[in-house]
Amino acid sequence: MFKRILIANRGEIALRVIRAAKALGIETVCVYSTADKAGPWIEQADRAVCIGPGPSPESYLRIDRIIAAAEVTHADAIHPGYGFLSENAHFAEVCRDSGFEFIGPSPEAMALLGDKVSCKKLARSVGTPVFPGTENAIDDIEDAVKVAEEIGYPVIVKATAGGGGRGMRVARDAAQLRTGIESARQEAAAAFGNGAVYIEKFLENARHFEVQTIGDKHGNAVHLFERDCSSQRRHQKLVEEAPAPGVDPAKRMKVCESAASLIASAKYSGAATVEFLMDAKQNFYMLEVNTRVQVEHPVTEMITGVDIVREQIMVAAGKPLSFKQADIKVNGHAIECRINAEDPDRGFMPQAGLIESFSAPGGLGVRLDSHARAGYRIPPNYDSMIGKLIVHGPTREIAIARMKVALGEFKIGPLKTTIPLHLKLMANPDFQNATFDIHYVERLLKAQDAARASGSTSKSGSAAGAESRA
In the chain, what percentage of residues exceed pLDDT 70? Predict the structure, then answer.
């Protein structure tokens, strides 16, 4: 087992890894930027090394500085968390070549599954369902137009690397496809350093369904069942839950097993998530594979009892998985709300600044993964997520009820957060009845904006009438 792990990340995921490492008796090293010098997670690490100024290209994305920090602190392994360099195959390779175990897949497995084109090819070969579309990155736009005409519009242009909605364009005809390919290439090149794109069939009203998997270096690969992540805004997840509600059990098992087969065929070790879209008839189509631990991994932990980060560390150290597929059972229902420091009433404007008050919720089945606290100053340099509120209950209805109570107890001031939005989502009939799709949040927000604008117009009209009468 490792003696010391360096965590190449920040915030709540850094704290999550520290806790898992401590439970295994492993020392931890945190790297941090000058913007994070007062980060609460740093206090929990055994050692901390500053690697540069606030902007991530000068700190958390500097491979050379992270490796140097690992060298001077005599770390055995490096955990990348999520985001930043977590899905960078070159970083994984540099770690290996520098003598540090990368707590994640091999560079080869990461490159194979991280590239959406090669991943789809492998998926086809093992029977994992995929979207019809181009089998390779697009070289000739007119060839892509021919494929689109064969599979039928609408189609979606996607970057072969990266994610988060960048390098994506929906096209409903040939003209939109031609311009969409060019703009997606430019955006993907700027965001990921790789402008390659491909096209596939686009589902108008789909649900986002993903399967948590984990493999080891001994050829074992299992799934930990699935999550529903359909509550999204601009391709960014807001609420995740497990298991996915209202899905046919036979179809669920088939797609979960296909995801585990895909991971095994890639000779993958570590945690991975195979993402799918599900249509109204519950047909599944693979989107991509995330070759890292996911933000939403706690909901899977809550329903299975598996400590996913602990298993990541054990697997990286060469240990076999501590369980077999038959050992994994679903217990109850879990929901996670991502708490972001954003103002939903002002276009989700980020809310950097000082947290003056912080009152965390509690009670049966409530878990809070957060690095925030009273006195913590949120820097403007990074993602706005400041915590994840997770609840567990014996049924989905009880989990929703517990989430409402927990959200009501959760007080953060004076900065705006997404807590009020989450309360609205928990009360939304589409969410409560699981009749949602990946666009329902945006429809709700659009209706609220229209109602707000209508109210403002009515008030203006009343004021004008009163002034006229005066």
Answer: 96
Residue 134: Cβ within 10 Å count? 22
Q: What's the predicted TM-score (pTM) here?
A: 0.90
- Kindly report the number of other CB atoms within 10 A of residue 115's CB atom: 19
pLDDT in tens, 213-251: 999 999 999 999 999 999 999 889 999 999 999 999 999
SS (H, E, C) 63-93: HHHHHHHHHHCCCCEEECCCCCCCCCHHHHH
Nearest Cα to 312, choosing from 274, 262, 268, 248?
268
Catalytic residue among 292, 338, 367, 402: 292
Q: Is 292 a catalytic residue?
A: yes
Cα distance between residue 370 and residue 386, in whole Å: 6
Whether pLDDT at 466 is above 60 = no
Inter-helix orientation angle 419-427/396-409, to 10°: 150
What is the arithmetic mean of pLDDT over 338-345? 96
Domain spanning 207-441: which superfamily?
ATP-grasp fold, B domain (3.30.470.20)
Q: Is the pLDDT of residue 456 over 70?
A: no
Tens of pLDDT, residue by residue over 1-31, are 999 999 999 999 999 999 999 999 999 999 9
CATH code matching the domain that covers 130-201, chosen among 3.40.50.300, 3.50.50.60, 3.30.70.380, 3.30.1490.20:
3.30.1490.20
Q: In terms of Cα–Cα distance, which of 104, 33, 35 is closest to 69?
A: 33
Torsion from C-alpha of 148, 149, 152, 153, nearest 10 degrees: 70
Topology classification of domain 4-103: Rossmann fold (3.40.50)
**463 to 34, 419, 451: CA distances (angstroms):** 51, 33, 18
The half-sphere exposure of 397 on its side-chain side, counting CA atoms within 13 A, is 1
